[in-house]
């Protein structure tokens, strides 16, 4: 229930506002003077204030200033029976949300209160999103002891100070490239402007230009109206180009032109539009190899790679794994009310010994699943999935033939056949899904299937 504070020295006004807003389901507190108002705002979580500028001996603008110092993001609607342009402008300059003259109608009050509370809600939502993006980033120094991870954090904090510098984040899938990108944005002076992300591999080449730069009405068959592109939408903020290594060479040339000129032109347009954005890009590909093979432009690489950040895979920083697991255990245990408080030493050893091909994303998913299914207080080895707990290894050892009864190559071939057949059955014969299950390229799978006669 939203909490609204009415500050007015007239009892009739306070009672009338309490009645109107109380009927709409709001909790209404009241104060007849600035002193009481200051105490309430300090003690209570107030969502909105209605403030009379004329409080007898007190100046409402002084009270407004004090309230904003106590709670800088507090929304205040100023009301007065002695309205003037000067007082209205003064209150708005000091951060008032709106200005109403007495007498006001109940319906008008309801509308402006609803709009103000929606604004408050949106602000809190944005703050929660930002905090969520920064939560792990801020806690990593406490849970991560690997020097490379600490260096990544230092680099991200450093580049956040330079709002124009392009950043290229490299690393395997699941290592947290998007998290670092969001953290750089929210730590920078651009934090109040949009952070807009796009996966360059997920959008067809014929649509990507329109997504990035927008288009004019009639630019192509389906362009029934003008569309603002993501670069325009991200103006003053940050655009995150994920999987930049998958971008078509034609689009690479157009992106390079934008980075050099800081201007975009909508598809079908004739006018250049200035844009002020920081570009953060990310890839799990080796762009140096892509340049040598002609798949990625060298000049674009240098434009994107002004400040490089490489995130090593989790298997190369095993000492971080127990701390990260504890972080996610606390997070999801609280979310699902599971009461987990610690991880047993055996479970920590098993977690640190696993290779984590899916990196942090896989670790997070494993801990989340454990918290969904199990109850605390201690995460133990039996809670872990077989591939981590060692059950899969023990099952494999049980199937090993007696040493000397069969040659190694024959045994390996028989095991490969079993694995591929089981994966094909699980994926209903879909080769692409089977390759994903076996974590091998599709071409490798087809070769093995042909060799084994499958």
Automatic annotation (TrEMBL):
Q: Where is the Sigma-54 factor interaction domain?
A: 142-372
The record's SMART domains line, in alphabetical order, gives: AAA, REC
Location of 4-aspartylphosphate modifications: 52
Give GO terms for biological process.
Answer: phosphorelay signal transduction system; regulation of DNA-templated transcription
Keyword tRNA-binding set for record: no
Does the record carry Metal-binding as a key word?
no
Q: Return the PROSITE patterns for the record.
A: RESPONSE_REGULATORY, SIGMA54_INTERACT_1, SIGMA54_INTERACT_2, SIGMA54_INTERACT_3, SIGMA54_INTERACT_4
One term of GO molecular function: sequence-specific DNA binding
Residue span(s) of domain Response regulatory? 3-117
Determine the domain of life of the protein's source: Bacteria
Which keywords belong to this entry? ATP-binding, DNA-binding, Nucleotide-binding, Phosphoprotein, Transcription, Transcription regulation
Protein's name in the database: Sigma-54 dependent transcriptional regulator
Question: To which species is this protein native?
Answer: Geoanaerobacter pelophilus
């Amino acid at each position: 229930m939203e909490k609204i504070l009415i500050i007015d020295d007239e009892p009739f006004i306070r009672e009338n506002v309490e009645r109107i807003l109380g009927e709409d389901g709001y909790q209404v507190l009241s104060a007849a003077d600035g002193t009481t108002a200051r105490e309430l705002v300090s003690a209570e979580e107030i969502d909105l204030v209605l403030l009379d500028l004329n409080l007898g001996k007190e100046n409402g603008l002084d009270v407004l200033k004090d309230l904003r110092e106590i709670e800088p993001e507090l929304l205040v609607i100023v009301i007065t029976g002695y309205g003037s342009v000067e007082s209205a402008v003064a209150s708005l300059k000091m951060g008032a949300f709106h200005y109403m003259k007495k007498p006001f109608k109940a319906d008008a009050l309801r509308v402006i209160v609803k709009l103000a509370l929606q604004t408050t809600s949106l602000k809190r939502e944005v703050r929660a999103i930002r905090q969520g993006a920064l939560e792990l980033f801020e806690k990593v120094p406490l849970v991560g002891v690997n020097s490379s991870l600490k260096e990544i954090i230092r680099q991200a904090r450093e580049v956040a100070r330079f709002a124009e510098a392009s950043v290229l984040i490299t690393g395997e899938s699941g290592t947290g490239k998007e998290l670092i990108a969001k953290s750089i944005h929210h730590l920078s002076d651009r934090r109040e402007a949009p952070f807009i992300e796009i996966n360059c591999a997920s959008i067809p080449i014929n649509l990507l230009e329109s997504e990035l730069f927008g288009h004019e009405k009639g630019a192509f068959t389906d362009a029934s109206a003008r569309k603002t592109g993501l670069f325009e939408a991200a103006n003053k903020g940050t655009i995150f180009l994920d999987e930049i290594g998958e971008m078509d060479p034609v689009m690479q040339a157009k992106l390079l032109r934008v980075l050099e000129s800081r201007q975009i032109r909508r598809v079908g347009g004739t006018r250049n539009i200035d844009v002020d954005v920081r570009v953060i890009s990310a890839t799990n590909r080796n762009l140096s190899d892509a340049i040598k093979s002609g798949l990625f432009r060298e000049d674009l690489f240098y434009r994107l790679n002004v400040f490089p950040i490489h995130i090593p895979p989790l298997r190369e920083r095993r000492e971080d794994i127990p701390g990260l697991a504890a972080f996610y255990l606390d997070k999801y245990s609280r979310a699902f009310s599971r009461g987990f408080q610690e991880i047993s030493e055996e479970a920590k050893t098993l977690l640190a010994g696993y290779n984590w091909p899916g990196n942090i994303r896989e670790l997070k998913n494993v801990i989340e699943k454990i918290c969904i299914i199990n109850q605390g207080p201690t995460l133990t080895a039996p809670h872990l999935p077989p591939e981590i707990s060692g059950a899969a290894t023990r099952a494999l050892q049980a199937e090993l033939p007696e040493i000397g009864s069969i040659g190694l190559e024959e045994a390996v071939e028989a095991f490969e056949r079993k694995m591929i057949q089981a994966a094909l059955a699980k994926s209903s014969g879909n080769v692409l899904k089977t390759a994903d299950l076996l974590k091998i390229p599709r071409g490798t799978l087809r070769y093995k299937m042909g060799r084994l006669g499958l």
